[in-house]
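Quick entry, no commentary yet.
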Amino acid sequence: MSGVRPVANRWWVVFGAVLMQLSLGAIYAWSVFTPALIEAGWSRVETQVVFGTGLAGFALVMVVAGRLLVRFGPRKLALAGGAVLGLGYVIAGLFGATNFWAVLIGIGVIGGAGIGLGYVVPIAVGMRWFPDRKGMITGLAVAGFGFGAMGWVKLAGSWGGLIESLGLATTFVIYGIAYAALIWIGALWMRMPPKGWAPAGFTQAATTATGGENYTLAEMLRTPQFYLVFLVFAVSAGAGLMSIGLMKLYPIEALEAAGYAPAEASAIAGTAMAVFFSLANGLGRILWGMASDKLGRRRSILVMTGTQALFLFAFTAMAGTPWLLYLGAVLIGFNYG
């Protein structure tokens, strides 16, 4: 990759990364489709099976994507991720938008794999171009993953009304094409810096002084720290992803139990997910990334996981009151970011 020509300004890499992540955050917008699917006869469990399958595919393919990135380079991998993600949504739309198996295979399996292929690219490329601001750039690179959900949810729901006016099938196809297009445009800036490149005033010695070490895969798997980090991220990310999957369904039930009409409860819950949660999630990715540069990775994770547990427990009592629901969505979204 040393022969790759650098972009004129490394901040264009950030622009491309955000464009990609706006689409890769498609999984966060899943909740906007669940009410229509339930009306079509799906059970709540079936909606969560698709969501969970997408997340599992995302996570598993990311492991392979790291190797593919080295072999094929970031741009090709990004293009492949966009194609696979877009294809998954188009398949779901063309082969039965309310058919469980079509949606499970299209959005859950194929779409999840596409997200996994593309997700590693903007993070890896961004960190190579910004070795002096790794926390900040990682946050910026993935901010679109959180912000994107707001636009996709509102476009399909209350603002754009795509589901109501065009139906689920057409909405899936439109989203598949849009996801692929944004990722392909963002891929234009996905290239590694030349070998030996560094920003002005930055020296690699400054980072090695912090005690960082390089391990092979086999060496890493023999360290207890790897399994501790894996456990922390599995538990904390699992809790956050569970919140995303239920951020609309659970508040709807809580609000209806509190006396709100179904349509009103759905609108309030949709706003909590699409606006408050998504905005806070995107901001959290940026600000926590910057905080980790200042506070250190370990301290930042301790603060996030500790407070997140409190917020999740409190959310069960907050979801039935609109302003408390919005506050809970902000707190959970910001921390999970």
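second:
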Amino acid sequence: MSVVINTNYAATVASNNLAASNSSLQKSLNRLSSGSKIVNPSDDAGGLAVSMKFSAAAKRSAAAATNIGNAVSFLQTQDGVLKVAGKVLDRMSELHTLYQDPTKNSDDLANYDAEFTELQSELTSLSDEKFNDVSLFGSTGLTVKVSEDASQTVSLSGKDLSSSTSGVGALTDSASVSSLGDISNLSDITDAIQNVATMRATNGAEQSRLGFASEVLTVNKANLEAANSRITDVDVAEESTQLARWNILVQSGTAMLAQANQSSQVALRLIQ
């Protein structure tokens, strides 16, 4: 082999190998310190694009689940008010029956009417209840998005306590019903009780459906996060093995570069 001064091929190769090993060592350190396989977009450009989509979908799933939770709270509040309305109507029916007692004098009847008037006011107040400034009762329902892509919805029916068709509105109309004596048939009250019971049943069915929709979102979110993890999260055991490998190669490369640089000393000795 010829002995030259200007070119040290062995040192050049050793230097290139050392640079490559050191670069891989730095990447391994970055992955372990960040916990992510994709530190830079160049590490896995395609994987990064997929990861971003999975991550966004998982966040939308969480947001949709939050919306469902708020809708359930809305329905629970609504049901609580309906429950109270049912109790008020029960008391009204009781008062109506007591009002028919022929042994009651006019003062007794006036006392019943006084309580009935207060119950009318309470029913009116209940029909005006709101949740976060959104009316609990009205002819218009609500639509809840129950999927991360907003393609699936659940409609919450409008429950109008103040309407005459519900039976409750007719009882709270002081112009036509100013006393218990204005209620000719007990069915006027029992029909209202039945309508409130139907509203509560509908409310319960809607809560049940939203509960199942929330479960689906929870499963989807977990699977999206798992899929994203396979793309981005570093396998610590595997990467630690690679770190040890690159660390050894850097150390051995440094030693070999030093040895290669010593070869030029042979030419120096020959010309001395």
